[in-house]
Amino acid sequence: MLRLSIKEIIGKINTEEPFNAVSEDYSFTLKIDSYAHYICGAVHDGHQFRKELWDNCLHSEYDRWYEEDPATKQMVQHHPIVIAGCDSRFEYDLNRSPDKAIYEDAWGKELWKKPLQSDIKNRSLEKHHNFYKVVHALVSKIESKYGAAIVYDIHSYNWRRWNREVPVINLGTTNIDNIRYSSFADSWCSTLSGIKLPHNIVTTSGINDTFQGNGYFLKYITKNFKNTLVLATEFSKIYCNELQYVMYPEVVHSIQNGLNKRLPLHAKTFYDQFIN
After folding, report:
1. Which residues contact 3 (CB under 8 A, 6 or more apart)?
2. What is the C-alpha to C-alpha distance for residues 257 and 252, in angstroms, rounded to an integer?
3. Cα–Cα distance between 198 and 200 in angstroms, integer?
4. Handedness of CA 20, 22, 24, 28 (dihedral sign)
5. Where are the alpha helices (H) located in 15-149, listed in sequence order?
6. Residue 248, SS3?
7. Distance CA 231, CA 181 (A)
8. Of the chain's two ends, which shows fewer C-beta atoms within 10 Å, N or C?
9. Domain 2-275 is classified in which CATH homologous superfamily?
10. Burial 126-161 (b: 16+ CB within 10 A, else e)
11. Where are the domains of the chain?
12. For residue 266, is it left (φ>0), alpha (ψ between -120 and 50) or beta?
């Protein structure tokens, strides 16, 4: 893996050079094995938390992990294009707009002992800004190359929060162009329900059941690229014990295998139908 500046990363994208890199400040990774017509994103995979923030933070490492999306990068790591955050959403949230990316409180609990200074915030927001510079260059390249692109925006959510039965997989589609793309969302939802999971877990799936797809990653791409579909795809945290801070690698592996089979086929169907 290379360590590259934002300028170097964008330069390689513009010349369609395959590479596997971490950004110069270690805030995100981007792997491009080939310039395929689809992209996988895992913006909340990161757990890094800048040391200068530690003493001022009221949340424990476990508190932060609980709200992050661990292993979401692993679920899609073998696909040709994968972009993933390295930093915790508690430093800055890549799935929120810049003006809301730095939390003052998180899920009803104050986050900081004292308000963050402007210079500390600006260091975090610079990383947010650079990430989206690369996202813009990447999606622009894929859409211009193929005439259309599809982005699989992979997340997870804490199913134990809900006092009702919730789907193992939820798609948020409120902010996509449903007139053009609802059939592709429906087919994605349907194929995901076929993923086989261990321990007799029944793979249920739904659309806009728990979350509606209001994230900034989806909104930014949708606003800036007219022929790119973003499918916000949330796995409930059946792949870990979210209360005990324990990962279930065999469940993660099963999700990964399921996506390895289904995701490229769905992306090909999207591309073939959209272009034709």
Report:
1. 21, 22, 23, 24, 26
2. 9
3. 6
4. positive
5. 61-67, 72-75, 118-146
6. coil
7. 10
8. C
9. Zn-dependent exopeptidases (3.40.630.40)
10. ebbebbbebbbbbbbbbbeebebbbbbbbbbbbbee
11. 2-275
12. alpha
Structure tokens at 25: 């400040």
Whether the full predicted model's pTM is greater than 0.90, yes or no, is yes
CA–CA gap between residue 23 and residue 130 (Å, rounded) = 9
* Cα–Cα separations (whole angstroms), residue 68 to 110, 144, 207: 17, 33, 21
Counting every residue written for the chain, the total comes to: 276
- From residue 24, how far is each of 15, 101, 133 by CA, in Å? 20, 21, 14
Q: How far is CA 90 from the centre of its chain?
A: 15
C-alpha 81/C-alpha 239 separation (Å) is: 23
Q: Round to whole Å and give the CA distance between 118 and 52.
A: 13
pLDDT digits (tens, 9 = 90+) for 26-73: 999 999 999 999 999 999 999 999 999 999 999 999 999 999 999 999
Residue 4 identity (one-letter amino acid): L
pLDDT at 33: 98
- Point out the residues of the chain with pLDDT beneath 70: none
Q: Which two tokens stand for residue 165?
A: 């039965």
List the one residue out of 19, 46, 191, 34 whose CA is nearest residue 127.
46
